[in-house]
Structure formats: C-alpha cells, structure tokens
Design a protein that fits this description.
474 residues, alpha+beta, 4-stranded antiparallel beta sheet, 3-stranded antiparallel beta sheet, 55% helix
Length: 474
C-alpha cells in the first residue's frame, strides 16, 4: 500500500490474492474513477473502468483512487467511524486484513518519520463479523485549504526507503570500545571482531564508540585502526567511522586535490543529495579543510559543467512535493525548444530547469517531454550534450526517476570488467547503507539478474569482502 503525495492518490498493493471487504468495495464502487491496474485476471480494459462486483485483487494488483481529497464517500466512512478528518494533504488507509500487522507497524513508523506534522490514528471497525483495523494518516494544510494540482499522469509514488544498517538495540559504546581494544591488542588483529562491531552499528553509534574509546584508553581509535589494518578494508572501516557529512566533504576534497579531478565523484555527491545535505557538506568543507568549495570547483572544472556544479552547491532545489502539471508541460516545451527544437543547444535552459525543480516535478516534466518530443529526455540530453555536463544532467534526471536504480548502476560498473573501482564501491555502500541500500539491492537484482552480494563476493576477497557482505546483507 502506498500513496502519492503529489496527486493525492491511494494505492493498495496486494501481497496475495484477497477479496475486497464488502463495506470498502461498496464505497469504492460509488466513487467515480477507481482504477485497477495490472489486473488482467478481471479483464479491466481502460483506466476509468470501475471496480467489478465481487472483485478480488490478485497477486501484484494495484488499486488506485485518483485525487484522494475528492473521494468524499471514503472520508464520510472515516467520519462515521468517529475519526476527525483535517483539511487533507493525504490520508493513508491501511486495512489490517489486507496487510500483515508487521507491515502496518513499519509503515506507521516510516510515514511518521517522513512527515513530521502527520497525526496517525488507529481505530477498528466491525463489518459482517470481521474486525477491520484502520490506520489513518492525516496531514493538514496551513490555512485549511488543500491546493488542487492540475490533473495529469500519476507522478511517482513516494516510496519509503530503508538502509541495511539500523541502530543496534541495547547499544553500549563502552562495551564496543572494549571489544575493539581487545581485537587490536597484542600480537595480530582480530578482524572478525572489528567487522562484527562496525557492520552492525549506525554511524551515530560509531561516533559514540570513538568518543568512549578515547575516554577509556586515552588513545585515538582511528589511529589504532590505521596501524592495524591496510588496503581496501582499512579504507572501508575508516569511511564507516567518518560522520556522514564529513565523509561526503572529504570525498569531494580528495576528488579535487592534487593533479586531475575525479568528476564522477563530484557528480555522484552534488547531484544526488538533498538541500540540507548539500548545505551541511558545504559548511563542513569550509570548517574542516579551510577552503571554499565553490572556488575549488571553479579552479578544477570549466564551462557548463562548472555552472551545473555551482548550481548544485547552492542547495536551493525546490523541495515542494506537490506537482504542478501545467509548469511541467511548460518546462518540457522550454527544454524541447532549447534542444531538439532548434539548431544548437541552449545549455543554460537545461541547467535552470534541472537544477531548480523538485525531483517529483522533474519526473512529471520527463513524462510531458516524451509526449511533446516523441523521445525521452535522457535520450535528448545524450544527443545535445557530451562529457561531464551530460553525465551530471542525466544523474539529476535518474535521481528524479529512480534514485536506487542510479546507485545500482554505479555499483555495477564499479565491479564490471577487469579490476574494481574500490573507492566508488566503498563510497556508495557506506553512504547509502542507512538510507536506501535495501532498495538499491532490489533494483540491482532486477536490472542485472544477479544479486549485489553475488557480484561483491566474486569481485573482492578476504576481510574486505566479509565486511562489505556484512553491510550489504544477503
């Protein structure tokens, strides 16, 4: 079950074939426009077909209600259950008999974390002897007026993402510091003991372990680790112990330090992070390295690529999740006229749109562009640009369309062919391990017909392989 915050649609995705409960079915049948997608079993032909009587949702089916704020009957049903509906931005209705209880609990936690002003109300309702638990998430708009976006093709569903590493329960920094000290003391190093700790603690917990180690032993944990480890496993463990923002800033500094520039690192970080992450990285870069990141970018890059990166450094992308379909249409037309529709390319137009629009807005723009140009926007960028600016613009669009797929592709090419780009492999595994590595793994398997763990296992060895696999999981 998911919702789209952009177009207020509600989706119920079935893990198994399950009859729709009678009270919900009757409600849905009376409302205009329920859509049943991927539903060949019932012979649904068009998107406007209503839900058939006595329907069941088979494996993999998705039921969508466009414009949830217009589904008055559902809102009336909620009010009849004694629930007060605020002016809606969205409402998530999860029905206990359709989804496992564990999934409800996970969803409630994730959605509350995603939308801090959400109020979550749990209730129950009896329908023909069946108890149905409802989980309602209601978000109010300031002023009581919900904006009405222009109808258009459904934008991407907001998806909850999940890292493979979570904070360890019953965490004790002192105990972990003691384990690490014992693993490094005396002759030889117990690498497995170190792996067991670092792969199963969150970044915040690792910072507390570092502080506890210095307090307990008067020694710097990082210096001790560097003296005991070497090679890729050393680089990986040191990366895991860096605070997240510092690691991004450190990666950018090293990408521009010395002879040559690692442009793909600049793209990977600056074109994929949120506004808040970008601003924190820029401040950290200044405080830790005493340098202005914009000046370093200007010194190491040039032309339209330089301008794109400077735009990214501002951390000013619109983050409003509501899609303006009229603007998407206008931007698509503008991009077409700046590229495919003229001789030459107006690069500044591409920079303006791709650097400032929200990711959901860009996704709608991509969809509008394909209708105007009969070609997808990524292909047009391929034709109109080259080199690093092409890679940067495509990275922004790939993040708008499917961020985990972008990182899955980067991981694949870090290991494909002869040799391994270990720095890229380490950087992505570490930086995404608490954000969306679960979804990256899923996309990797879908895109390349092999698991990420399988490819890592065949491309790495020793303690380095063991630690990577412990982070990635099976």
């Amino acid at each position: 079950m998911c919702f789209s915050r952009q177009d207020k649609s509600l989706s119920i995705r079935q893990p198994v074939s399950t009859p729709i409960l009678p009270f919900l079915e009757d409600t849905l049948r009376q409302e205009e426009g329920p859509i049943l997608q991927h539903h060949r079993v019932l012979g649904i032909k068009g998107q406007q077909d209503i839900l058939p009587q006595g329907a069941t949702l088979p494996l993999g089916a998705t039921l969508e209600l466009p414009r949830l704020e217009e589904c008055h009957l559902i809102l009336e049903l909620l009010q009849a259950l004694g629930l007060v509906c605020l002016p809606l931005a969205l409402a998530l209705v999860a029905i206990h008999s359709l989804l496992p209880k564990a999934m409800l609990e996970v969803d409630q936690h994730k959605f509350q974390r995603m939308y801090q002003n959400a109020s979550v109300i749990a209730s129950s309702h009896h329908s023909e002897g069946q108890e149905v638990q409802l989980l309602i998430m209601i978000v109010g708009y300031a002023g009581g007026q919900a904006p009405s976006p222009m109808p258009g093709p459904p934008a991407a569903m907001v998806q909850c993402t999940q890292g493979t590493i979570q904070a360890a329960p019953n965490f004790d920094a002192g105990r972990d510091a003691e384990i690490l000290r014992k693993a490094m003391k005396g002759f030889g190093t117990d690498e497995q003991a170190i792996i067991n700790v670092v792969a199963n603690r969150s970044n915040d917990q690792r910072q507390k372990i570092k502080a506890a180690f210095k307090t307990m032993y008067g020694k710097d944990l990082i210096k001790d680790l560097k003296s005991e480890l070497s090679g890729n496993v050393e680089e990986l463990i040191l990366a895991l112990f860096m605070p997240r923002t510092y690691y991004d800033a450190w990666s950018l500094r090293h990408a521009m330090k010395g002879a040559g520039t690692q442009e793909r690192v600049l793209i990977e970080i600056l074109c994929t992070r949120t506004n808040q992450e970008i601003r924190e990285i820029v401040n950290c870069y200044k405080s830790e390295f005493g340098r202005d990141i914009e000046q370093d970018i200007r010194a190491d890059t040039s032309g339209h690529f330089e301008r794109l990166l400077i735009s990214m450094c501002q951390g000013n992308r619109d983050e409003n999740q509501t899609v303006d379909y009229q603007k998407a249409q206008e931007d698509a037309q503008r991009l077409y006229q700046a590229g495919e529709g003229k001789l030459g390319t107006d690069e500044s137009c591409f920079n303006m749109v791709l650097a400032s629009r929200s990711f959901p807005q860009l996704k709608a723009t991509v969809e509008a562009y394909s209708r105007i140009a009969n070609r997808d926007l990524l292909s047009s960028i391929d034709r109109e640009f080259s080199g690093n600016v092409e890679r940067g613009l495509k990275t922004i669009l790939q993040c708008a369309l499917n961020r985990p797929a972008f990182f899955a592709e980067r991981l694949y090419y870090s290991m494909k062919g002869a040799g391994t780009d270990d720095s890229t492999l380490i950087r992505i595994i570490v930086t995404r391990s608490e954000i969306d590595l679960v979804q990256i793994k899923q996309m990797f398997a879908q895109m390349y017909q092999k698991t990420l763990a399988t490819m890592i296992a065949s491309d790495t060895s020793g303690d380095y392989r063991r630690l990577l696999l412990a982070i990635v999981g099976q």
